[in-house]
Amino acid sequence: MSTHAVLEWRDGLPYSTAFDDVYFSVSPEHPQHGLAETRYVFLQHNQLQQRWQQLSTDRPSHFVIVETGFGSGLNFLSALQLWRETAPPQAHLHFVSVEIAPFTLQDLQTAHAHFPELAEVSQALCKQYRLLQPGFNQLELPEFSASLTLYIGDSAQLLPQLNFKADAWFLDGFAPSKNPQMWQPYLFECMARCAHPHTTFATFTSAGLVRRGLQSAGFQVEKTRGFGNKREMLCGQWPAAVMSQPTRPHLPKIAIIGAGIAGCSSAWFLANLGCEVHVFERAATIANGASGNPRGMLYPRLNAEKPLNDHLAWRSYSFSLRHYANLDLGNDGFQVCGLVQLGGSPRELKRVQKVAARYADLGLLQKLDAQQASVQAGVTLAHDSLFFEHGAWVNPNMACMRMLQHKNVHLHVSHEVTGLVKQASGWQLQMNDAKLSEHFDAVIICNAAEANTLLPDSGMWLNPVRGQMGMIAAQPSMNSLKTILCGDGYLTPEHQGQHAMGATFAPGDNDTGIREEDNLDNLEMVSRLSADFNQALHAEITFARASLRCGSPDYLPYVGQVLPLEPLKLQNAPIERTQDLPSSQGLYAHVAHGSKGLMTAPFCAAILARRLLIDFGHALPQLTEDSFWHGLHPQRHVFKQLGWQSLMQPFSDKVPT
Which residues, listed in sequence order, are joined to residue 238 by a DSSP beta bridge? Predict the structure, then answer.
């Protein structure tokens, strides 16, 4: 990406050329000076050790820190280390940080080398610190029961959007004299909006404009001794704060219908947030739909014309790559080998050129001519292409199995859910044997094209598409292939003596039987990818599988609350604000990912998990703009039919820079 911090290293210390200031200080007399200052200013004066030791050991809890200025990540690392040492295991740390110009990974590692005692937490962060883009970046660290929401951009754009409750603020960033645009009223207004009676703050500065801004916003401000040679610093709290922990709402017990990639991802992220999750699958095994294919591709299909679709693709791509790496699936479950997307027709070539012109500066793709693409792929290619260095394949079944192994997830196979029963005490599931399940606070429908059997009046338009993929035995002409190739189908490099190929595309066809003509279509597709593959038509097919993908008319998934439509249609006047919509009373959908579910489902599951807990009273940080979230609403087509255009805030088509 083009927004990395430009650093000068002076005596081994990182200086910002933009703000002419050092990120942290280290002296020969006190080599851990920067870390000691972080602990003194931000950890000690937010009383984090005491507060975290007081968190409930009986039930899961959440703690939210907001930081202005991620910089070298030193504050985050010190907080993460203390969190693991003092917080109970079932608590979850949410760390939200804003940074206009992030370090490169190499600069981050160089900076962290000053603090060897942080090596373990640094390694965990650096493993996730990649594929960063302007806007929201969600980095999950499940081994620490922590999440980092890193917003790359101007704090003036993000902070007015925040709508949750922060437990503590780290007011970092460069001094007001060096970076006055950050220390403005919008910062203090945001802090007041996100405050509760237990919210605290700390900052290294004692500047009068900061003190007056905080007091004007309503905070109680204390001036105290600074660290080292610094005379004074500020800390404080929202009025009437008492250092006992606030009362938290209970975490909902959740039922998920369907054990494909959408259901398993939803279970994983909700379980990581402490929820008790029950997954119901009608088959005897999991991942029986498209999620049961032995390999699936991870790459964004961009068009440079639909901003919400493209942003979903970008964010899902980077998020899913980090997510699958986190699952530790091994070489048989997940491989990053790069992907070449061919401009093999006039229409595709035009799209390749348009996408490259719009997005190449983000650093996640390159435009290659035919010769460059051939070198990258290791086989002869005849067309200009897009190259995704981090393109990958994943074994969906292994990923689903891994996500369901969480201690908070309970799997129920051979349980076909035939109906939903809403009662005062929650939801019950009607089973095929006429029995009712226990009560659940919330239900998430994740059974793809069959969702409308449980939600017949939801207004979701679900388009089933048959697809058949296959595996072919390795052959000499394909041995040199180094990357995934995508044209009107895909082919993966050899692994365990086989290549994966596919997939056919048959809208409206619900048959999942294996067809020989589809095998031949896939082989012909492979033969068109490269002139080197002229023998592909004679390759041995070792495996074939057909399944149904479920999509929507606008190629966006349905994610969010499912509302009762009949009362809405009887409204005398249009509903113009989402906050005026009735509650779904705990009913959600997570379906219609089409052929990109392996990439988009984990990201959407993470968003949904946060939004669901917000609906149940947990004021947690959101992972997207509201307009992005509303654009995925399961009933967005109905809202448009009713003429409620103002309800669906248009997602900005501004290109990230």
Answer: none
Each residue of 30-41: pLDDT tens digit? 555 789 889 999
* CA-closest candidate to residue 263, choices 298, 291, 300: 291
pLDDT in tens, 94-143: 999 999 889 999 999 999 998 999 999 999 999 999 999 888 999 999 99
In the chain, where does the domain assigned CATH 3.40.50.150 lie? Answer: 7-237
Tokens 């392996």, residue located: 598
Per-residue pLDDT tens over the stretch 33-75: 789 889 999 999 999 999 999 998 878 899 999 999 999 999 9
Q: What predicted TM-score, i.e. pTM, was given to this entire model? A: 0.93
294, 397 Cβ separation under 8 angstroms: yes
Cα–Cα distance between 259 and 567 in angstroms, integer? 32
Instruction: Place 228 in a pLDDT band, splitting at 50, 70 and 90.
Output: confident
Residue pair 367/353 in contact by the 8 Å Cβ criterion: yes
When pLDDT is cut at 50, 70 and 90, the band that residue 26 belongs to is low
- Residues 33 and 21: beta-carbon distance below 8 Å: no
CA distances from 339 to 138, 207, 487, 532 (A): 23, 51, 11, 18
156 CB-contact burial (10 Å; exposed 0-12 / middle 13-18 / buried 19+):
middle
- Using an 8 Å Cβ cutoff, are 596 and 622 in contact? no
How far is residue 541 from each of residues 73, 537, 544, measured CA to CA in Å? 50, 10, 7
Angle between helices 105-112 and 74-86 (to 10 degrees): 60
Q: Angle at which helices 396-403 and 261-272 pack, to 10 degrees?
A: 30
Q: Where in the chain is the domain with CATH 3.50.50.60?
A: 251-333+394-462+552-657
CATH superfamily of 251-333+394-462+552-657: FAD/NAD(P)-binding domain (3.50.50.60)
| CATH 3.40.50.300 is held by the domain 7-237 | no
In degrees and rounded to multiples of 5, residue 550 shows phi and psi of: -120, 120
CA distance 201 to 69: 14
Tokens of 485: 């190739």
If you average pLDDT over residues 207-226, what whole number do you get?
93
